Amino acid sequence: MPEALLQLAGLTKRYGGLVVVNDASLDVRQGEIHALIGPNGAGKSTLVGLVSGTVAGDSGSVRLAGRDITRLPFHRRSRLGLGRCFQVSSIIPGFSALENVALAVQARSGSSFRFFRPARLDPALNSHALRFLEDVGLAERAGAPAASLSHGEVRQLELAVALATEPRVLLLDEPLAGAGAEETERLIGLLNGLRARFGILLIEHDMQAVFALADRISVLSQGSLIATGNAASIRADPEVRAAYLGEDAIA
Questions:
Q1: CB–CB of 23/13 below 8 Å?
Q2: What residue spans define the domains of the chain?
Q3: Can you name the CATH fold of 1-81+167-251?
Q4: Could you tell me which of 127, 125, 92 has the C-alpha nearest to residue 107?
Q5: Does residue 85 contact residue 33 with C-beta atoms inside 8 Å?
Q6: Exposed, middle or buried, 179 (CB in 10 Å: 0-12/13-18/19+)?
Q7: Angstrom distance (rounded) from CA 38 to CA 86
């Protein structure tokens, strides 16, 4: 069995008397896409924050490649190999696609952001950045302003930026949100092509995409993980069916 690159154990987050995430445990293995699904208000965003370091937990632990990162901030987790694509785009619209990725390459190298504008003319830096655009099928749009990219291309660019941080685990927060059918198909193909290189924790509402991509699926309901398994077992689980009552994706 492949090693667990990301391990969550007993994560709990309370806001006053409200338990938003309750004793959540799961792992993500090398070469695996592990999807996290659940209805709105289930606690997915909070759990993502606990994993990425943007939310401080009340108890439990997060381990990355065997190292305890529970108390580390987001930027430290990133440097240790946790890459994240945010639900809300963090792309800089006024920069080209290449410049956005070059900024991430430079940040990974430890250079200060204030040196970015002259550094973007560095052929070695741009060559490195272009490689990540090639990985996501966006090399031909390298010089295009990010503001001119289609919604699907922005998602591809966000993934290229995440790859530029040289992650071991990718945390993808609704990467297909707002994508049309053609864009969704392209992004599914892209993620399938990248899966062998990382462990991927995928948070996604598009259930057809989840079932097409995920090796394992964990279901979060009212802050608690109620099931983990492959697509067939999740579809058949009566508790999952009850949690998704009326949702065609599980029926």
A1: no
A2: 1-81+167-251, 92-165
A3: Rossmann fold (3.40.50)
A4: 125
A5: no
A6: buried
A7: 18
- Break the chain down into helix, strand, coil percent, rounded to 5: 40, 25, 30
Output DSSP code: residue 166: -
pTM for the full predicted model: 0.89
- 207 — phi, psi (to 5°)? -70, -30
Question: What b/e readout covers 67-101, taking b as 16+ CB neighbours within 10 angstroms?
Answer: eebbebeeeebbeebbbbbbeeeebeeebbbbbbb
DSSP for residue 110: T
Half-sphere exposure (Cβ direction) of 239: Cα atoms closer than 13 Å: 12
What are the residue ranges of helices labelled H in 55-96?
A: 74-80
Q: Which residue in the block uniquely carries the two structure tokens 């994560």?
A: 11
Cα-atom radius of gyration of the chain, to the nearest Å? 18
- The answer to whether the CB of 101 falls within 8 A of the CB of 161 is yes
> Per-residue confidence of the chain (251 residues) as pLDDT tens digits?
677 999 999 999 999 999 999 999 999 999 999 999 999 889 999 999 999 999 999 999 999 999 999 999 998 999 999 998 866 567 899 999 999 999 888 877 765 444 455 545 577 788 889 999 999 999 999 999 999 999 999 999 999 999 998 999 999 988 888 888 888 999 999 999 999 999 999 999 889 899 999 999 999 999 999 999 999 999 889 988 887 644 544 44
